[in-house]
Every structure is written in structure tokens, then in C-alpha cells.
Design goal:
The chain is of the alpha/beta class and 283 residues long. It has 11 helices and 11 strands. It is globular.
Length: 283
């Protein structure tokens, strides 16, 4: 049976400020197989590692650039979109203190910096975030990513050295055409499960992706979905296993929860904030 795989979610984000080099390095220390990088795009077209499309949750942008906010039409709240700032401006921000003062010196890393920092210590699992936002601004996020892969020589590391993922099928279709040998994971939110997690839906996914990354609740108690995905030629990597929110009482620990999905349901890998608690064996 192939080895099960740990994908630290935003790095070792249970213990360090997400999407900082400190979080990525800790993930390696804790036994990561892959490390996830969410990719946003700056005003000057640089890929950076940031989960949200805006900067206020994980940096001190409100303090450094108080007059640069825009209003989110959906919520009426102020936000500081990464796409409105150059990479030089973003590098001025403290990206760690929000999590713990120990990380006050951490900065938002660029994708290039993350690739360099990880080296060959762990494989890469970038996610293309909110491509709709960039499309609305005339920015082809997938094209920027494809260019970076070629510029950084990433295909030369071997086909499984990098798995790209997205909740949006359009960039995955673009990458499937340009880099057909690169593994591609289609992420599936809980609300979209009924559309995709059927025989027909999985067959469609297999046209543009090599794996699925469903919200874990979509698989809980449903081993037949995992079997159907595998029969369709797709890997299965549910998200997110974390000690930062209450663990289901059935399991008692995040390790036991991951063990259930990995060995009882037979998923291939899991996204986790706690790579140090990843079970390598079924017992």
C-alpha cells in the first residue's frame, strides 16, 4: 500500500504564523511530505504566499497603510486587497505578530522565496486562490504560475515534486493544457459536494485534475466516495485536520481523526495544521 501523505496546511499553522517561512520550516521539522502555499498576486504581478485575498487578518497593514483600504461590497467592511499593493509595500508588513509576538519579524514570503526556502526538504503544494478576483483585473494568475514553474525549473524535480490545487476548475484546466504531467487537485467545498462527488462529477473532474481535495465532512462515513474517486483514477486529500478547533468526540484527538480518514476510509493524504500529530501507521 502506498505511504500516506501529510500536507501541512499553510505550513505548521497550528504552531506558527501561517504562510511565513517560519511556518514552512517548522512543517519540515515536523515531518511534512508536502507544504501548502496559498498564492495571491500583488499589484506588480508577483506571486506571494497569502491565504486571504486581503492583508488585514494576518498583517499590520491597517497600521502601516491606514488610508489604502477599500470597502468590500459584500460585507461593507474595510479591506486591504493584496492586489492593490506592490510586493515592496507588502514586505514592509509584520506578518507574524497577529499569531504570536515571537513571529514579529516574519514577512509575507513570495512564491519564489518559499520555493528557495523549502529546497528539496519537502515537496510543494501551491493553491491558486480567488482567480476570479484577478480575472476581473485582467490578471491571468494561472499564466503567472506556469511561467514561474518553468523559470524556477520545478518540473525538473520530478512529476510529483509539485501538486497544484484550486477550488476553481478554470486555472486547473489551463494548467492541464500547458503542464499536463503536473498533478492537479480540485478542491471541493462542502456545499459543492452534491455536484461533484458522483460518478458523473468525478469523471468530469478527471478531465482536468488528477485528484480531489474535499471538505472532510463530505467523506465522513462515506467510504464509497473514496472508492469511486480511486476507481476514476483520482487521489483523495480531505481538509482540514486541526487541533485549533474542537475535535469530534468520536475520535478524541486529531491524530485519531486523521487515522480514521487515512486507514478506515483509505484517503491518500490529509491537509493538517498539526503535522507532528500525523499518524504514519494504522495503529
Amino acid at each position: 500500500q502506498p505511504a500516506k501523505i501529510a500536507v501541512p496546511h499553510r505550513g505548521a499553522s497550528g504552531y506558527a504564523a501561517e504562510h511565513t517561512l517560519a511556518s514552512y520550516r517548522l512543517a519540515i521539522e515536523q515531518g511534512a511530505d508536502y507544504v501548502e502555499q496559498d498564492l495571491a498576486v500583488t499589484k506588480d504581478g508577483v506571486l506571494i504566499c497569502l491565504h486571504d485575498e486581503s492583508l488585514e487578518r494576518t498583517t499590520n497593514v491597517e497600521e502601516v497603510f491606514p488610508d489604502r483600504a477599500v470597502v468590500d461590497p459584500a460585507t461593507g467592511q474595510k479591506q486591504w486587497l493584496a492586489a492593490d499593493f506592490t510586493v515592496a509595500e507588502i514586505k514592509r508588513l509584520d506578518a507574524g505578530s497577529w499569531f504570536d509576538p515571537r513571529f514579529a519579524e516574519e514577512r509575507v514570503p513570495t512564491w519564489d522565496e518559499a520555493v528557495a526556502a523549502l529546497g528539496t526538504s519537502a515537496r510543494l503544494n501551491p493553491e491558486l486562490k480567488t482567480p476570479d478576483l484577478y480575472r476581473s483585473r485582467g490578471i491571468d494568475q494561472a499564466a503567472l504560475f506556469i511561467e514561474s514553474v518553468e523559470r524556477l525549473g520545478l518540473p525538473a524535480r520530478g512529476d510529483s515534486a509539485l501538486i497544484v490545487q484550486s477550488f476553481d476548475d478554470r486555472p486547473l484546466r489551463e494548467i492541464a493544457n500547458s503542464l499536463p504531467r503536473m498533478p492537479r487537485t480540485f478542491l471541493i467545498e462542502a456545499r459543492d459536494g452534491p455536484r461533484w462527488l458522483t460518478e458523473e462529477g468525478l469523471r468530469e473532474i478527471a478531465l482536468f485534475a488528477t485528484g480531489i481535495g474535499p471538505a472532510k465532512r463530505l467523506l465522513d462515513g462515506r467510504p464509497e466516495v473514496v472508492r469511486l474517486a480511486h476507481a476514476t483514477g483520482l487521489t483523495v486529500t480531505p481538509y482540514t485536520f486541526t487541533s485549533r478547533s474542537p475535535v469530534d468526540a468520536r475520535f478524541g484527538s486529531v491524530t485519531n481523526e486523521m487515522r480514521y480518514f487515512l486507514f478506515d476510509l483509505d484517503v491518500d493524504a490529509v491537509f493538517t495544521d498539526n503535522p507532528d500529530q500525523f499518524p504514519r501507521a494504522s495503529q
